[in-house]
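dumping this here so i dont lose it
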């Protein structure tokens, strides 16, 4: 999320980055854009990064906001929500199949349209696993830039396009975060239990190497506490909106030190692979919606091939059911986490100019075959 910097300089960059994100979020919210705090912050900070500004959110700060967002997501759970989970197994199974098909279609597109090597196309095409993808790309000596740009562009396009598309169809609109039934000042003990339990769960999953654990852990802990009626306190909307701005800023910071010309060079691959993934997952979402009579917006976000944390926060911002969305993305995370290392290893044997241990040669920067 951010390299180590002198404290004063890092604090300046953090303040500047969050200010840019807040301005973007406020403008998007002011014009009525759904999920405006998240989408506006992401777009403005990405533009700032490409313009040469150092968009930076220190890792410790980002993790704090992730835990806050996880608690907020789980807070919408009710006993009725937990009972409704029994009706989701078919939909959850279908998303696993949908993600496999979307990844295969994206790999084929990058391979045959843009000439990417299959190994690199797998890393760029698998949806919503950027951290794991970056680790594997480094391990196998694959140049990170093309993979990172395609993965990040998918997140940006989904974060901007999904709310706009659903709003255009009249399915969602500008929404305020729900106010909890009990204020923080009225239940300090409940707040302490919520924060402690959520933090332990988030850090525990993170230490285990679980992708998205800093959001999933608090979400699960908060959902159980609220769903069973053990706690009723929720975080104030201003804090949740601040955390959304921070998440958008973290996403935008991925473009820091990235030349604009390099992004343009990968734009075709990024937009094309995004379109392929969306078409495939949309087809599955339509089938599931018609088959199981589920809410269309919730299914669309649950099946969206984007970053797990961003999609869950998007569900919260759009007043959908983030527990439903989170359960589906949780299943996707498990499948991707188990399958990706195997698939990458199977396709790694013939990577051209692969960097071996101690070998100073670098692969082609575009990840494309000769």
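and the seq i came up w/
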């Amino acid at each position: 999320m951010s390299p180590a910097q002198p404290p004063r300089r890092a604090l300046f960059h953090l303040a500047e980055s969050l200010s840019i994100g807040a301005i973007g979020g406020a403008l998007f919210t002011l014009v009525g854009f759904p999920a405006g705090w998240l989408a506006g912050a992401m777009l403005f900070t990405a533009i700032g990064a490409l313009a040469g500004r150092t968009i930076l959110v220190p890792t410790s700060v980002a993790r704090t906001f992730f835990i806050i967002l996880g608690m907020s997501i789980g807070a919408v759970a009710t006993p009725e929500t937990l009972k409704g989970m029994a009706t989701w197994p078919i939909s959850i199974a279908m998303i696993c199949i949908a993600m496999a098909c979307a990844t295969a279609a994206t790999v084929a597109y990058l391979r045959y349209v843009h000439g990417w090597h299959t190994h690199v196309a797998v890393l760029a095409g698998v949806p919503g696993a950027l951290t794991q993808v970056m680790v594997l790309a480094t391990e196998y000596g694959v140049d990170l830039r093309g993979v990172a740009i395609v993965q990040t562009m998918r997140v940006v396009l989904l974060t901007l396009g999904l709310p706009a598309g659903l709003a255009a169809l009249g399915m969602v609109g500008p929404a305020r975060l729900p106010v909890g039934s009990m204020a923080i000042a009225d239940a300090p003990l409940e707040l302490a239990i919520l924060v402690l339990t959520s933090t332990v769960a988030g850090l525990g999953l993170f230490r285990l190497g679980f992708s998205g654990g800093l959001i999933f852990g608090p979400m699960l802990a908060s959902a159980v506490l609220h769903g069973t009626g053990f706690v009723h306190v929720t975080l104030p909307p201003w804090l949740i909106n601040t955390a959304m701005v921070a998440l958008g800023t973290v996403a935008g910071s991925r473009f820091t030190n990235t030349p604009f010309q390099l992004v343009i060079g990968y734009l075709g691959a990024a937009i094309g692979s995004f379109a392929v993934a969306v078409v495939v997952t949309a087809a599955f979402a339509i089938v599931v919606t018609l088959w199981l009579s589920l809410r269309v917006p919730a299914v669309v976000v649950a099946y969206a091939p984007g970053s797990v944390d961003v999609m869950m926060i998007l569900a919260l911002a759009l007043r959908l059911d983030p527990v439903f969305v989170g359960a589906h993305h949780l299943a996707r995370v498990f499948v991707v986490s188990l399958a990706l290392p195997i698939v990458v290893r199977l396709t790694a044997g013939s990577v051209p100019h692969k960097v071996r241990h101690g070998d100073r040669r670098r692969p082609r920067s575009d990840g494309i075959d000769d």
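The two ends are 33 Å apart (CA to CA).
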